TrEMBL record, chains A, B:
This is Molybdopterin binding oxidoreductase. Residues 363-483 form the Moybdenum cofactor oxidoreductase dimerisation domain. InterPro entries: Ig_E-set (IPR014756), MoCF_OxRdtse_dimer (IPR005066), Mopterin_OxRdtase_euk (IPR008335), OxRdtase_Mopterin-bd_dom (IPR000572), OxRdtase_Mopterin-bd_sf (IPR036374). GO terms for cellular component: mitochondrion. The keyword Protein biosynthesis does not apply. One of its GO terms (molecular function) is molybdenum ion binding.
Length: 538, 538
């Protein structure tokens, strides 16, 4: 980060850093006494924790001195109509509390959002940055533009000099080694792999669970995602399998082996500090479905997406695709890092604050079949001529792919198949976009629904309730939007619309009463006579 | 109204009258040129319209000069968190526009709310006043206290001197006549009738329709009622049948005959002005189910409820129970007053702004079977020992009565019968209160549901959607509340609750994360081993 941008962060301090900390101890804590420093030259914003257990203990005690605010209440009350929707005050304060080496990370990270993402992103959480693109643009192209690709970060964004960059391969490999970017890009050492892969956050469509049944407030806020926490890119780099081979292969191959990834970002959980750490099973690496990528759609990775190097685990929850990779660690079992052990767990619907334990949730790795309607939007009032055009995405993880997409205009009783011509290309690891002209005769409020079948005949749960879970993950139930249908092929409707047009009064929204009377007295009386009056004859 | 209270209205002007009118004409309209005056001495706030067709025409033209604001948008956005919830700005302005004789009516009416109703009423609409009592008090007694009885007014509240009060009986009776209060109370002329009757507004529980499917914005705002637009009182007065007999009986008895009631309040519809007017069929009068009442639970009618005399039509929608009665008019067919002809219509679910006509809706007279859960409330998080206590009301109109009430803890699959001991007394025309200790084993979000069966085996539609209608009337579907169940008879739950208690940290709301870790590492690893690890063995 240059001095110039540091200056800008100073300006931003008062706006977004919320540096005022309510301190519980009588003596104000002195963050500089911690002596925290960036780990390496050229790795701005990178603090190493996992190599220094004593430091972690010290920080745990130190953090107890602060009275950080509770999780914001946005589940039992309506969401704020702001963008960013949520600010991440607590996480900004965690960083601020650590002193000079960390305090500017939230503000600096926000500058990358402004620089690298579309200006009209929906900022679900300002820090750590979580954002999704506007719905119409998400399904405009089957390969998502880099600036529109959703971001779900778990900490700040480090700025790493590629020339100074390397990662270490450690643990149960025969020859642990340090690999530089230059080596990795050397095609005489490593063949290139380039694959179209959809990455999806398990929080996609969480807002539906929140609306119906609020859940875990979480340390890092269960962000209220819409349908846009998903994106597709062509990722280019080297298969992790080749890198492990380059390190002499596994010491003790077994089905239990996991490959752990550590990132340069800082993660907090229950008052403790960590580097981001997750893992994927060796089986997944073995079939070349774990990529170390430096290119996203033919361009260098944006900083916000993990520059200079990130992991891409095909068909898995996005959380495993570690950014700003610092270490690869082959271990006997899944990572004990909190993101792997304590987060992204899928609980039975009777689990909640009163009885949740990490072991009782299963770990979300492969993503299930799901889909979403991106147009029309929920609560839209659609004037049409007997057909409503619907558009959206459909996806299945774990190497499965969408083979059929179906839409319903009646809440899920009658299903229409999306014509195969209207489905985008098939990939083993990517979504398919779809559109359909859904025949709709009925007027009034209708529930438009979509569901996808994947090649293993998996389809989606019926209702949000069917798959509600305490941590509000994987809202993969049939996606439903309510629309008010106004069918212009019906004479009475056509006449009424014409009348509004003639008067120059907008017809929508439907909740605004029109100025004209609905029926004149003469016609009313004639109609009532035809109907035999209001009451029986005798 | 005394000078004293008029003074107070002046103070209130700026707070609640919103007298600023955007005027479309170049010349500001002069309301005093209309020369409107109160109709009768001792009848403060009573303007007569129906006897003066020329005046009505004049007002229609005059009202066109104003650019009154549109209906407030509260259906497609969340309701304001204020009490009053809605203000009724347009209706205040309509009155203001009419000049001196009408401009203070909104402020004066509000003084009656403050004087006659409980201070903690939920003011759904400030003017015309619409309000309901807090939920717990509504089901505290099977006879509703006068100050807690809901109010759904359609205009301002006149203040009528009982000594000066009379009403006229006109139309198809053999001897039209004027009857004073003194005559009506003369037991040598009219025998008394005293009956326990539930009055219900067809808007009860409208908020559920609004939440799921917004509808007609309406002239007078389809107020966002909860479950409290219902109340029960012992009404005392004279059967209308006796009064008609006193007037020589019907001129031309026929099944089609209706008896029209006119009130002293002013009603607006589509830019025209009216006196409140509705009707009930002669058949209903004939069986002594239409009462002219001056007593409510042994006390004189409160002003806000129609003092000195109102109609009470048993088992019908409250709208027919005309307040501040000025005239009774026997007519050949239902009233053509806008409240009867153009309001309180029940449409097919495909009818909306694009095709609604008055004749295509049927008129709401008899109220159907319905019920509501008044405790627990929607979104409550209930800590219990295997049983959740539910309380509420059940009602059926048209002379039917609740014979069975059933509750479900699983969204309506398994139903428990409310023990007959827990149902309040049976009346032909009143609700029954109920309570049940519902056996609940499950934890997490549950849908508690209630339904009622009446003596004709009618029961309620299943979902809000089953009976959605454009004017958002009669939300009589099975009432559902979502509660998060925390069952303390389960050891894991009991232990967690104890832990919170010991730490002195409140357990609720569930969306606030606890500070403690969910599971220690040792127990996690032991559990995972018992479960055979995260991944398959081979």
């Amino acid at each position: 980060m240059t001095n110039g941008s540091l200056k800008k962060t100073t300006v931003l301090d008062t706006e977004i850093l919320h540096p005022s900390l309510a301190i519980r101890t009588k003596e104000p804590p002195n963050p500089e006494a911690l002596g925290l420093q960036e780990e390496l030259p050229g790795w701005h914003g990178y603090l190493e924790w996992e190599k220094y257990p004593e430091r972690k203990k010290e920080i745990k005690e130190y953090m107890k001195k602060f009275d950080f605010p509770g999780a914001p209440e946005f589940q039992l009350v309506p969401l704020p109509k702001t963008n960013p929707i949520l600010e991440g005050v607590r996480w900004k304060q965690y960083h601020y509390a650590l002193g000079k080496a960390a305090r500017d990370i939230p503000a600096e990270s926000w500058l990358f959002v402004e620089k690298e993402k579309s200006p009209d992103m929906i900022h679900v959480l300002q820090f750590p940055y979580n954002g999704e693109p506007p719905r119409d643009r998400l399904v405009a192209t089957s390969i998502t533009r880099n600036e529109d690709h959703f971001v779900r970060n778990h900490g700040g964004i480090p700025e790493i000099d590629e020339e100074k960059y390397f990662f270490d391969v450690e643990g149960l490999v025969n020859n642990p080694r340090r690999i530089t970017m230059r080596e990795l890009k050397d095609e005489t050492l490593f063949p290139r792999q380039s694959t179209v892969v959809t990455i999806q956050c398990s929080g996609t469509r969480r807002i539906e669970q929140i609306h119906e049944y609020p859940g875990d407030g979480d340390e890092l806020i269960n962000a209220p995602w819409g349908e846009g926490a998903i994106g597709t890119a062509r990722w280019t780099g080297v298969s992790l399998k080749k890198v492990i081979k380059y390190c002499g292969g596994l010491k003790d191959p077994s089905a239990a082996n996991h490959v752990e990834f550590l990132g340069a970002d800082t993660y907090f959980k229950k008052g403790e500090v960590y580097n981001y750490a997750v893992s994927a099973p060796w089986r997944k690496v073995k079939i070349n479905e774990v990529l170390l990528a430096w290119e996203m759609n033919g361009k260098p990775l944006p900083k916000i997406h993990g520059f200079p190097l990130r992991v891409v685990v095909f068909g898995y929850i996005g959380a495993r695709s570690c950014k700003w990779l610092t270490r690869i660690n082959v271990i006997a079992n899944p990572s004990m890092g909190p993101v792997q052990q304590k987060e992204y767990l899928y609980y039975n619907s009777q689990v909640g604050k009163q009885n949740a334990s990490y072991s009782s949730g299963f770990s979300i790795q492969d993503m299930p079949v799901s889909s979403a309607i991106m147009s029309p939007l929920d609560m839209d009032q659609v004037i049409h001529d007997g057909k409503i055009k619907m558009r959206g995405w459909a996806y299945s993880g774990g190497g499965h792919w969408p083979v059929r997409v179906e839409a319903s205009g009646d809440g899920g009783s009658v299903w229409y198949e999306v014509p195969y011509q209207n489905l985008s290309e098939k990939y083993f690891h990517a979504w398919r976009l779809w559109e359909i002209e859904l025949p709709v005769d009925a007027e009034g409020w209708l529930e438009l629904v979509v569901r996808c079948w994947d090649n293993a005949l998996n389809t989606q749960p019926t209702y949000v309730r069917s798959a509600w879970n305490w941590d509000l993950h994987v809202t993969s139930s049939c996606h439903r939007v309510k629309v008010f249908s106004i069918n212009r092929t019906r004479p009475k409707t056509a006449a009424k619309l014409k009348m509004f047009e003639k008067m120059g009064v907008p017809f929508l929204p439907i909740t605004q009463p029109g100025e004209m009377d609905l029926e004149d007295e003469e016609s009313y009386l004639r109609e009532m006579e035809a109907r035999g009056g209001r009451d029986p004859v005798e």
